[in-house]
Amino acid sequence: PRKIIIDTDPGQDDAAAIMLAFGSPEEIDLLGITAVAGNVPLALTARNARILCELCDRPKVRVFSGADKPIARPLVTAEHVHGKTGLDGPELAEPTMKLEEQHAVDFIVETLRKEPEGTVTLCTLGPLTNIALALQKAPDIAQRVKELVMMGGGFFEGGNITPAAEFNVYVDPEAADIVFRSGVPIVMMPLDVTHRVLTHKARVQKIRDIGSRPAIAMAEMLEFFERFDIEKYGTDGGPLHDPTVIAYLLRPELFTGRDCNVEIETKSELTAGMTVVDWWQVTGRPHNAKVMRFVDDQGFFDLLTERLARI
Ligand code: BDR
Ligand code: CA
């Protein structure tokens, strides 16, 4: 199985990603979960990660707490989407498992140095603060990362927190800039992909029908999460962003995209956090990311449902 670290700010869609990984032990060896501030403040994301481990009967998974704010800006959160706790929807018990004492950034550095070069994949589902801090602290780790698969950015699709920027990159553009300049092989799941995987009613019902406690909780989370888009945009469901990252590890053929140069806007007030994707290869700048654009959405939901049923 592929060794991964999940860096996350749960978030109901982060929860779906984590559960997709839990349901795929043959392909995925989860070395640890690192929490970062994003959708809600750090204390809550670190709590939510542990709640998910316990909900899915994975109390041995190590959960680390990381950066409580972006590198150079005040934290922006998204309770308007995810609710006060970040995991609003189901009734969830407070976690009893402990947080690891080590800081998430140190865990990331130590793991990448300890494991054989090119064997650890970083899966990022929130702002890139922890990863950027690790790269700053230990630049030698850049060449040791197998791949960094991230949910973040948007290009033809535009932004979801400002007209130009997607939330994860907007929250910490300086961190994203460090990551995109680091030389780490990046796979990017932008809004162009994630806005095509919508939680239609029948899809959520299939998850609920699995009947297990984690699956029912997942269905309740999705019903809370999707109401934001349904009410605001009149869509048939909410965009299930973060699990596309794990789905890519399991079934890369569900996604299509191309190698591009991507730069991050950090200076402009109007477009801070914009991912400037050179899709048409007009700059001649070197490729630094595989940018996905299309997805087999039904294939994605079939995979998610099948794996949730294995938890
Ligand atoms: C991203 O922002 C968060 O609200 C979601 O969890 C996802 O990671 C989508 O823009
Ligand atoms: Ca997230």
From TrEMBL:
Q: Per the database record, which ranges form the Inosine/uridine-preferring nucleoside hydrolase domain?
A: 4-302
Alphabetical keyword list: Glycosidase, Hydrolase
Query: Which superkingdom, per the lineage?
Result: Bacteria
Which Gene3D superfamilies does the record associate with it? Ribonucleoside hydrolase-like (3.90.245.10)
CDD domains assigned to the protein according to its UniProt record, in alphabetical order: nuc_hydro_IU_UC_XIUA (cd02651)
One GO molecular function term of this record is: hydrolase activity
What is the protein named?
Nucleoside hydrolase
Query: What is the species listed in this Swiss-Prot or TrEMBL entry?
Result: Ensifer adhaerens
